[in-house]
Every structure is written in C-alpha cells, then in structure tokens.
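To whoever is covering the structure queue this week,

Two jobs came back overnight. Logging them here so there's a record in the thread.

Job A:
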Amino acid sequence: MIPLPLARIAEITSGALTGMADPRAVVRGPVVIDSRAAVPGSLFVAFKGDRADGHDFAAQAVEAGAVAVLAERPVEAPAVIVGDTMAALAALATAVCAELTGSTVIGVTGSAGKTTTKDLLARLTARIGPTIAPVGSFNNEIGHPLTVLKADETTRYQVLELSARGVGHIAELARIAPPKIGVVLNVGTAHLGVFGGREAIAQAKGELVEALPADGVAVLNADDPLVAAMAERTAARVTWYGRAASAAVRAEGVTVDDRGRASFTLRTPSGAAPVSLRLYGEHAVENALAAAAAAYELGLPVATIAEELSEAEPRSRWRMEVSDRADGVTVINDAYNANPDSMRAAFGALDALAGARRRFAVVASLQELGEESDALNEGVGRLAGGAGLTGLVVVGDGAGPILAGARAAGAVPGVLGGGEASAPRDGARTVVACVPDAGAAAAALEAALAPGDVVLVKGPRVAGLERVAEALLGGDRR
C-alpha cells in the first residue's frame, strides 16, 4: 500500500478520527480484516460478521502494531469512524488505485477457471514487472479492494479476479480498479439459480469488457458463443483465444499424458512454441490460453510464455491437487467448489489419470442451481454412474437427485468396503453409497481402497469435502 496519513484516510472514507488517533500517523500497510494478521504499520478494518464482530478485536490489532482501526463505532483504539466499513474499504482502494498511474490493471472473470488463470497470468506478468494478485479466490467486495490495497508505487501489474453473484457486481468491482485488459473465460452454470439463467450470467460477466477504455484490450474465448458475443459490448480492441482456427492465440495438437496433464503447441501471430502443462486436466488448456493471450498483448515473447506455462505448478489450494500416498493411492482434491461444468472437467481428468486403475469418487449436491437444481444434480449422478467407478460416495443432504441419476446410469446401492466394491471389470456396476458427512465418507473410502486406486474428491465449497482428501492423505494439506 502507498503510505497514507490517517487524516488522508479519513478524508477518503468520509470518516472521523477518534480523539486518540493521531492524524499524522502513517499507515503503510497491509490493510487486514483479521486482527491476527495485524503488523506494525497496518490498518485493521473491523467488519461485523455472523460469528464475530471485528470491533471486539480492535485493541488486539493495535497491540500487534496496527496504526488504527477502520470502524463503524468507537472502539478502545485509535480509529477512523465511518458509516459503512465495506463502502469505506472500497473508497480507500479506489483512491489508492487512482494514484498508481504506472500500474496496469488486468481483470479476469468467468464461470470457471478464474483462479487458475489468474495464477498463471500473475506468473507471466511477474517476468516483466512487479505484480500483485489475490491469494486464492479473493475476488468479491471485500477481497477485491484488499488485493488492490497491496499495490504500491513499485507495482507494475495488478492481476485481479472478479466474481459476481448478480448483475452489477463486476461493474462495481471494476470501478474500484479500472481494468486496461479484461479476460473473459466462459459462461457456464455456476450460480445459475442466483442469476436465473445463462443469459443473465453473460450479462454480468460482460460488465468487465464494458468497463474497458477505448485503448484497452478485451481477451475473449472464441470457443464460447456467449463470451464471443461480448465483443459487441466494448469499445476496446478485441483479441481471441481458444482452440478454434480463427483464434489469434490458440492450442494445436493437444495431447494428454497418463497423469492427465496436457501438452500442445501454443500458436500466436508471431510464432509458436511447445507447452507441457504441469496442471492436471485437459480443461487447464483453456486457462493457459487465456493467460497466454493477455501476456502476449503485454509484449511477452511466445517462447517465454510457453516456458512459464510449462513450469507453472498449481498455486491455489483444493483445485486439482493430485497427491500420491505411499501405497500408490492417488487422491485428486478438487474440492474448492463445483458446478455442472467443472464436474464434467473433473471426471474427464479422473478418466485420463486413472487409466486402468480402480477409480472412486466423492461428491455432494451442487448448490445455487435454482429451478434446474434437481435435473442438473441428476445429471451429475448420471455422469458419475457412467464414469467406470468402482465406488461412488455421495455426501450430505440433497443427495436424492444424484443417487437417482447414478442408479439410472447403472450404479447399484451398497456399502463400500469388505469386498462390496469390486473392481469394475466384466461389466461390474458402480456401488453407490450415501453418507452424512466428510468424516463418514473418508471412513467408507478407507475401508474400500486398495493400493493403486484413484479417488476424485469434488463438491461445492459448503460441503467441506477437502476434509475427505486431507483424511485420506493422513492430514496432508498440500
């Protein structure tokens, strides 16, 4: 963060300093919302949540070195009192970003793949200048301004992930940090029930390209018709990526190895270079192409882009993390979140990685799908039931549609373990079991697994299925 005296912060946020706050005291960052993360020179923002009220931890933050607290009511610490801490945080980030005229903002949005693409692109931009990017999926009305506030006078690139839970959300985030380059990945079924349809999702995602200036660049997926249509909604220049021959930056000759990692030729207007991804799943190709197209617009040579993409390891947790136990069991932890599109991608990765090995999957009912919830969850069951699984474990409430879909695809109810789940040979059918929670799922799997088996763990964030993967790996949180 750029250094700011408390008097300036109060001016930006329309706040009032409490009597004990020194207007000349300088905040140098970071800006934090967890008092345990406070360090000398930081600013603690007190949010009132469902489980805790940050105002109760104001003194603790200041004792740890925070210069002051951004709060909505007086606290036992130096503070800037504002009417709404969320609005004040956004105002502060907007002001700071406006002062960093030498920094280029790159926004990334889409229904799936935002975090992976952001991680890849941040790695690429770091080759040409100091870069800030969110940790994990810090992409909403709190995480977005907190990330922007990490930037300072040395920052050349801000690679930001923008999410939406309704029309207007991305436009608001873009006002905080106006993008020069906007990357749109896809329009899928994530949060379908919240938006009411894919057209509404497209409307929301397209707010990113609408925010671009005339001298900016919209990086659009040539393979997604709803994304391609966004070209009409921007004054910026449009560049295309994808697998289509018409895409300026495209993948040619895609192959997948026995660990589910893709290789391809990266083709650009100025040449080509080979890429061998260390990321798992063929769907990572699209994320790599999106990052490559944005980096190409920034002037990175194709050979450098290919080199960086080939060296990139998974950076954010619980997204296609592949770990091998000592007994040869492979656990695919893709439990950060799930929607019908990402489920298909995950099962595709499982198929490529498992090969002839026995395969298991742990899933949970997908959320926020609206009126189509039952039909889409039944589709997940059909997908799993037809995936050649030895065993399928469905966790938690709302399992009925998944179970129905799995049974329609030929799966049979049963209990995993004790020989119930035999190898899927000679037409053997998948055994499907329903359990109440992650602990029960891990126990069921441990009873059924044999050396060399492969397990996919995939579900919505609320299900907490990452705990299944961690239990299977003996507490390993890689």
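Job B:
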Amino acid sequence: MLIAIGAGMVTAFHVGKLPPALPLVRDELDISLVVGGWVVSIFAATGMCLGLVAGSFADRVGHRRIVVTGLIALAIGSFAGSFAPDGVTLLITRFIEGIGFLAVGVAAPSLIVAAARGPNRGLALGMWSCYMPASMALMLIVSPPILAAYDWRVLWQGAAVVSLIWCVVVAFAPMAPRPTGPGTQTSFGENVRMTLSRPGPWLLALTFPLYTSQWMALMVWLPTFLVEERSAGIGSAAGLTALVVAVNIIGNLTSGWLMRSGARHWALIATASTVMGLSAAGIFSSGVPDELRFILCLIFSGVGGMLPAAVLGGAPVMAPTQAQVGTVNGLIMQGSNLGQFLGPPVAALAVATTGSWGAAGVVMVGCFAVAIGLALAIRHIETRLSTRH
C-alpha cells in the first residue's frame, strides 16, 4: 500500500514542479500566456478525455504493469522536457507526462484495494487521497531553492530520476495478486459497459468535479486575491497558500479513519460539501476580517479533504465487481480532471463579469448545493447495497 501511495506522490511531483517554475519557463522559452496555460492544464485535459479508457485498460492488462509504464512515461516526458527548445516541444513532453500521470492515477488505487482488507481499505484509500496535496506542498517548498541554485531544467531532470527509481521499486516489490472471480476475464469493452451501466460510478464521477473545481479555483486564485485585494506580499501569499494546500491532508486522513470506523461515504461527501460551500461564502465576502478569512480557507481545504477520500473509497463499493475498480477509478478521474480544468477559469469569468470576488463564492456555493443532491442519491444506493450484503 505504501509503495502504491508513493507512486502517486511521485506522479504529483510532476504537477507541483510547474507552478513555481512557470515564470522562468515562459521567460526562457518565450512562450505566450495561452501556451503557458495549456502547459499547466494539459494534465487535466488528458485525464478528462482518457480516464475511463485508461482505467479499463488497467483492469484488463494488470495494474502493476500500468503503474510501471506510467512512471516510465513520466520519466521520459520530464527528461525530454528538460531539453525543450520551445513551448510546443515542452507541451508535447507534458502530454507524455500527462499520460503517465493518468496511468498511475487509475491503476495505483486498485493495487491498494487488492492489498487492503476489511475496514482498513477505507483508511488506505484515505491515505492514497493525500498524494496530491502532500506532493504539491512539498514541491512548493523544495522547488524555489533548486530554481535559485540551478534552473527549471534541473528540476525536470530530478523529477525524471525520482520516477525511474520508484518505477524499479514498484516493478520488484511484492504485491497482492490480481483479483479472481466473477468479471475478472471480461474484455476491455465489457469493463466499460458494466461500469457505465451502474448509477453508482456515475454519481461518484459527478461528485468529484464539484470538489476539484472549487479546490483548484481557490488554490490557483488565492495568491492573486491576497496580493490584489488584501495587499499581501508575493512571498507571504505563496506561503499562506502552501499551508492551505497542506491542511487538505488532514481531511484526507480523517475521512479514511472515519470510513475505517464505519462512516458512510455519502455522509462524508455531504459534510465536506456543506463546509466548503459555507466557508467559500465567507472567504470571498468583503466584510470578513482577514484573520477569519484565512481560518475559513484552512477549514475549506481541511474539511473539504474528506470528500476525495470518500469518493475514492466508494469506488470498490460501487464497482460491478472488484475487477472493474480500475475502470471506476478512471471514470472518477475523468470527473476530477474536468473540475480541475474548468474550476479556475469559471471562477475567473465570474469575477471578471461582475467585478467582484464575491462572485467566486457564489459559484462555489452553487457547487455545494449540487453536491448535496448527489450525496443523497449516493445514500440511496449505498443503503441498498448494505441491505443486500
């Protein structure tokens, strides 16, 4: 389980390495703001389009093989990107990295599900959901001194080396056997058909973008909001944002522990969504003191972190059989990346249209309202499944 979680953290290094380095990359390669935006969003675009396909392929071929292949793709893309002479070449290499990121993201949770037993499965998937905020926070701390001493190309090469090292670890580590039983010999197309025919996977996949759109919008625009609206320094804004990112881990782990204790997935989703919506309304309200505003940011990210763990923990429950867990994770990842792709620009559009940051809070409250409806639908299915078993 720890090796699979480590693979997720290594992949997230390739996400977290870009934001601190982007100003240097744009300056050296002379790329436009538009190309720079695509360099940032290519991971989300890849996952948004190919998540279900990647998950079904992993279920058919084998999850360890897909994780190893994904880490190799990350290493190749990152190393090739370190020699990119222009923005187009860098964008191509980021697409290769995005394929690797997607491969690990859909396959590693299935390795965890195979290794975990009983109530420990929820806790393990809660730990898995920490990989993104933990790696992003770590890269926000590690990247600046590397960039100051060397340049962004060295950072790319370092991420490639780490990916290759972890590739070897995954390839030779003892792993739980692939699942056997009903559904284990289904074809690629049958995995997709079985998954899409169930309402549970759809509900989980629709819930996740409501979370990621809010969380990514806040993480992307919080530094800008602090600098432009609250007159914070750039260094202070970056440090405060890193702290907000890091507390997300607390929610991930708390949700895993609660699932281990028997908490229902729908209840965790509803609780996290409610707290995020109410906190967002205060964060972007003009009359809130700055100290309380930052506390609300911490609450938003910390309690909100319960949702991804609950959604990912629901994948084995909602999957037609254990052999389709990767396919369900792929569908969930498509939803997650859809939220990451749309969240920041939709929030920015709302602010630009109204001229007020309060509009971003309105958008997030709307996401909360829809998420509550989905949580109640998940409750119905979860209750039916628990009665059946």
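Note for Job B: The mean pLDDT is 86.

Please reply-all if you pick these up so we don't duplicate work.
Q.
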